[in-house]
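Reference record:
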Amino acid sequence: MRSKRWDGKSGCAVEVTLSVIGGVWKPVILFHLVTGKRRFMELTRRVPNATQSMLTSQLRELEADGVVIRHVYPEVPPKVEYELSEFGRTLVPVLLAMREWGETYRGHGSTDSDG
């Protein structure tokens, strides 16, 4: 059940990827799901700069794109967990590469814009 957003304008596969996992919060959310299921409030603690409504919106989009699975347990209070779908797990190497690149960039120390 993929959303219509994947039909990019340029036809470039990178655009398709970014339409699914792009933005500030989606890769961070996905990275926190790499190690397994997380409850919503756990995600809010791990991504403290994202509002709860933004987190909810991003999780819904990831679920609509078939990357995240939402589990609702019939308990009081309600228990909701999120995890990567089987297809979403194919993003793990991408997410790990993004983390590695970010660590390298952070350690690079130069913001020289001369080229």
User: Anything to note?
Assistant: The chain has five helices and three strands. The radius of gyration is 16 Å. The first helix runs from residue 13 to 21. The longest strand covers residues 68-73.
